[in-house]
Amino acid sequence: MASQVVWNRGRMVSSKICVVCKRSFTWRKKWEKNWDEVQTCSKRCNTERKRINRRNKSPENQINLNLCDTRMLKPEVSERAAAQKLQSTTFMAQQTLKEVKRAQRAKQKAERRALRVGYADKHATQKRCKLCSKPKDLLIRCRFDSSMQWHFICGPCWRTPAVANGITDGDGSNPFYTYGGLWKNNNP
Fold first, then answer.
1. Residue 106, helix vs strand vs coil
2. 3-state SS string over 40-91?
3. CA distance 42 to 25
4. Higher pLDDT among residues 12 and 98, named by residue
5. Which are the contacts of 102, defined by CB distance < 8 A and separation ≥ 6?
6. What does the DSSP 8-state code read for residue 136?
7. pTM for this prediction
8. pLDDT tens for each residue of 28-56
9. How far, CA to CA in Å, does 127 sit from each of 80, 140, 161?
10. In whole angstroms, what separates CA 52 from the centre of its chain?
11. Burial of 73 per CB tally in 10 Å (0-12, 13-18, 19+)
12. Backbone CA torsion sign across 58, 63, 66, 71
């Protein structure tokens, strides 16, 4: 890797291009003894390079050397280019995944902030009734069908004979009914 000389903080300093992130980085005092061997700009890039190398050395990525003589095996230039391209696309895919996760976290944070400040939608923290699908601040958690799944039911729907007929322990008309408590919206 050839180094270049650049102007940095009032003096001329050697610089290189990081093999992982492709950014330029400059000479540091800590690299004084091994500047020729330095290939990455930071510990993070060095860790990423090692991770990529480990993946490429994993058994599924290895060539089965039992089928051919290792003394005759020479890697083709195109294979090296393909391996480097695979490394760079893997790194870029990881970067885009990180950006997506970062955007999701930012969106969730903005929603929480809107709730805290009071700018959020009125129905943002409400849950919907399983039967009538209306958003409510107070729901009854119960089982009422053969699936035996817990559902949230609003008061008017809970009073119907199909659920509990308005009785906490049920009136016996629905054999699947089990009361599971109340859910209250703490952020109305």
1. helix
2. CCCHHHHHHHHHHHHHHCCHHHCCCHHHCCCCCCCCCHHHHHHHHHHHHHHH
3. 9
4. 98
5. none
6. E
7. 0.40
8. 888 878 888 888 889 999 999 998 888 88
9. 55, 11, 23
10. 19
11. exposed
12. negative
Question: How far apart (Å, rounded) are the C-alpha atoms in residues 170 and 159?
Answer: 10
Residue 102 to residue 108: CA distance in whole angstroms: 10
Residue that the structure tokens 């480990």 belong to: 54
- Please measure the distance between the N-terminal and C-terminal CA atoms of the chain and give it in whole angstroms: 62
Tokens linked to 47: 């860790």
CA-CA-CA-CA torsion for 23, 24, 27, 33, nearest 10 degrees? 60
Contact assessment for residue 61 and residue 55, using Cβ atoms and an 8 Å cutoff? yes
* CA dist list (Å): 67 to 40, 58, 60, 63, 72: 36, 18, 16, 9, 12
Q: How many residues does the chain have?
A: 188
* Residue spans of beta strands (DSSP E) within the chain: 4-8, 11-17, 24-26, 127-128, 135-136, 138-143, 151-153, 178-184
Return the residue matching tokens 């005759």. Answer: 72
Which amino acid does the sequence have at 110?
A: A
Render pLDDT for 64-100 as a digit per residue (tens, 0 to 9): 444 444 444 444 445 666 666 666 666 666 777 788 8
What's the chain's Rg over C-alpha atoms?
Answer: 31
Give 13's Cβ-side CA count (13 Å radius).
16
pLDDT at 96: 78
